[in-house]
User: Which sequence fits this backbone?
């Protein structure tokens, strides 16, 4: 409950299951994690479009976008990173309750922070997608010029350079963006969602 006192949870008259039934698909969090430049934002944006075209009710939370508003007061210390992920986890949980297939693209470098999000969701509502890409390839891509700045000492505590990234130990999906095309990656994820029953047959006809 944190520092809050004298508060009571008010349940909705509409259940998550009723929302899912109307939407004709389950709701869950697809949690994209990986190094900067690995392809998380590109992949999640393309998947969001694909799911939308299939009729899936979805929304994407992206690391930079969230830091423009909700988490603009947080930096990149281990403590601030943990709080960043905690807040996103709580927002994602609300979106799952609303019946949305929620996509999140965050470096989220620490295993314990990702597990904390998994633990606040119900079973099978957290799908960890490890966007695998070597540091060398990410640094070569460097779409925002961040690695160059980190190497020059202009950015401190940059993940992969002078701050750690803990690879997922047992992710639901691993997408190797060095060896899989964007189209192949999208097919892999949508196939998983169909196989596991997140997308119902009635939605796909």
Assistant:
């Amino acid at each position: 409950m944190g520092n809050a006192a004298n508060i009571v949870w008010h349940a909705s008259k509409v259940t998550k299951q009723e929302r899912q039934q109307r939407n004709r698909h389950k709701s869950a969090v697809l949690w994209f994690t990986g190094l900067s430049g690995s392809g998380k934002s590109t992949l999640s944006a393309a998947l969001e479009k694909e799911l939308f075209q299939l009729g899936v009710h979805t929304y994407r939370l992206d690391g930079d976008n969230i830091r423009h508003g909700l988490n603009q007061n947080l930096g990149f210390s281990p403590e601030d990173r943990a709080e960043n992920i905690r807040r996103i986890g709580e927002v994602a949980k609300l979106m799952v309750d609303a019946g949305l297939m929620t996509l999140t693209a965050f470096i989220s470098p620490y295993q314990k922070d990702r597990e904390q999000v998994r633990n606040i969701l119900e079973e099978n509502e957290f799908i960890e997608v490890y966007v695998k890409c070597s540091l060398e390839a990410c640094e070569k891509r460097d779409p925002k010029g961040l690695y160059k700045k980190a190497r020059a000492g202009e950015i401190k505590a940059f993940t992969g350079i002078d701050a750690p990234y803990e690879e997922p130990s047992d992710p639901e999906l691993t997408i190797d963006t060095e060896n899989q095309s964007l189209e192949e990656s999208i097919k892999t994820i949508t196939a998983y969602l169909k196989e596991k029953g997140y997308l119902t047959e009635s939605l796909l006809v």
User: Anything to note?
Assistant: The chain is about 45% helix and 15% strand. The domain at 16-204 is CATH 3.40.50.300 (Rossmann fold).
